[in-house]
UniProtKB/TrEMBL annotation:
GO BP terms, alphabetized: cytosolic ribosome assembly; negative regulation of ribosome biogenesis; negative regulation of translation
GO molecular function: ribosomal large subunit binding
Family recorded in the similarity comment: Belongs to the Iojap/RsfS family.
Organism listed in the record: Acetomicrobium hydrogeniformans ATCC BAA-1850
Name of the protein in its database record: Ribosomal silencing factor RsfS
The protein's role, per its UniProt record: Functions as a ribosomal silencing factor. Interacts with ribosomal protein uL14 (rplN), blocking formation of intersubunit bridge B8. Prevents association of the 30S and 50S ribosomal subunits and the formation of functional ribosomes, thus repressing translation.
UniProt subunit comment: Interacts with ribosomal protein uL14 (rplN).
NCBIfam families: rsfS_iojap_ybeB
A single Gene Ontology CC term: cytoplasm
InterPro entries recorded: Iojap/RsfS/C7orf30 (IPR004394), NT_sf (IPR043519)
Length: 130
């Protein structure tokens, strides 16, 4: 897998995020390496939920895992049925509804940087734009 040198350590540090999302059946999990084009974060993790209750379960599971690891974060969009965001500093985790993901279309916005796709177990399977 070819990700930028700047984010290699961050990616390894947070690779467990895809596994946690997958453990709760998040759909279409990707990470986007924005380290060379952004000053506010290195990596986005993006996934879909299949319902509002599923979105809440994914949010709760990720925040519990962050708490266990004593990682500081903030949450935005708690009341949104389209999108929830967990900001961990270097890493930002987006949990979308199907409609929200289409509307915000982050893959298109950040389409010039490496995008890593994960399988249903949270294992990396393909890199695009590397």
């Amino acid at each position: 897998m070819d990700i930028s040198k700047a984010s290699e350590g961050v990616m390894e540090k947070y690779e467990w995020i895809a596994k946690v999302l997958a453990s709760k059946k998040a759909q279409d999990i990707i990470s986007i390496d924005i380290s060379e084009v952004s000053g506010f974060a290195d990596i986005f993790f993006i996934s879909n939920s299949n319902s509002e209750s599923h979105m809440k379960a994914l949010l709760d599971t990720i925040t519990d895992a962050l708490d266990e690891r004593q990682i500081t974060y903030t949450v935005e969009g708690r009341d949104s049925n389209l999108w929830r965001l967990i900001d961990c500093g270097d890493v930002i985790i987006h949990i979308f509804s199907q409609e929200g993901r289409k509307f915000y279309d982050l893959e298109r916005i950040w389409g010039d940087v490496p995008i890593l796709h994960y399988d249903e177990d949270g294992e990396p399977v393909a890199v695009l734009n590397a």
